[in-house]
Write a structure and sequence with these properties.
By secondary structure, this protein is α+β, with helices and mostly antiparallel strands. The protein has five helices and eleven strands.
């Protein structure tokens, strides 16, 4: 679907006595991005500059940047170009600068703000946002071992398991392979497994693996 970052990211460095702090945060809407920028500006009210850039929408249809007093084209544009080069969307980055008394020049500013953006998104972890089904199945205990072995062999994310009169199992499966997984489970159980519920969701993956924690 699209690439973004998994979580809030932050990192910093110093160049020619100027301190640069890069921040990045996933944002679903432009309002989210604006709120994040305001949050960082409030946190660093005493900074020389709080420059920002964001891209919103699966088709990257909303793109904004702000130089916040730096020479035009030396801060916001380099930051948004990093996001575009990485192919990222639904995130906002802010680069805070505390001036150290030494001029960096236009080229130095471009490099510094580009780096501020890059280290922030790297810290936030670049991920692929993919379509999944969060599905709940019901089946007899006699099939449980075979089903668990199958899911493990396919590296399918297992969620909650509720042991009642039957086993109720939640799994998270790529949208693209869901039907084939259901067919395999039917074969394993001689069609005695029941799909109780399914919901389409978007989850973060990296190198084809579901990210842990927030996807649980």
């Amino acid at each position: 679907m699209y690439k973004s970052i998994y979580e809030y990211g932050e990192d910093e460095f110093i160049v020619k006595k100027s301190r640069f702090i890069g921040y990045a945060k996933p944002c679903e809407t432009e309002a989210d991005a604006i709120a994040f920028i305001d949050e960082i500006k409030k946190k660093h009210y005493d900074a020389t500059h709080n420059c920002s850039a964001y891209i919103i929408g699966e088709n990257s249809n909303i793109q904004r940047f702000n130089d916040d007093g730096e020479p035009s084209g030396t801060a916001g544009i380099p930051m948004i170009e990093v996001l575009k080069k990485e192919g990222l969307t639904n995130l906002c980055v802010v680069a805070t600068r505390y001036f150290g008394g030494v001029m960096l020049g236009a080229g130095g500013l471009v490099r510094a703000y580009s780096k501020s953006c890059k280290i922030a998104i790297d810290n936030g972890i670049v991920v692929d946002m993919e379509l999944f089904y969060d599905a709940k199945f019901k089946y007899d205990y006699s099939y449980h071992g075979k089903i668990m072995n199958y899911l493990d062999s396919k590296n399918i994310k297992i969620g909650n398991i509720d042991y009642q009169d039957f086993v109720y199992l939640n799994i998270k499966v790529y949208n693209s392979i869901f039907e084939s997984v259901v067919a395999d489970l039917d074969n394993i159980t001689s069609a005695e497994i029941e799909l109780v519920d399914k919901n389409e969701i978007i989850l973060a993956t990296r190198d084809g693996e579901l990210m842990e924690g927030k996807n649980d």
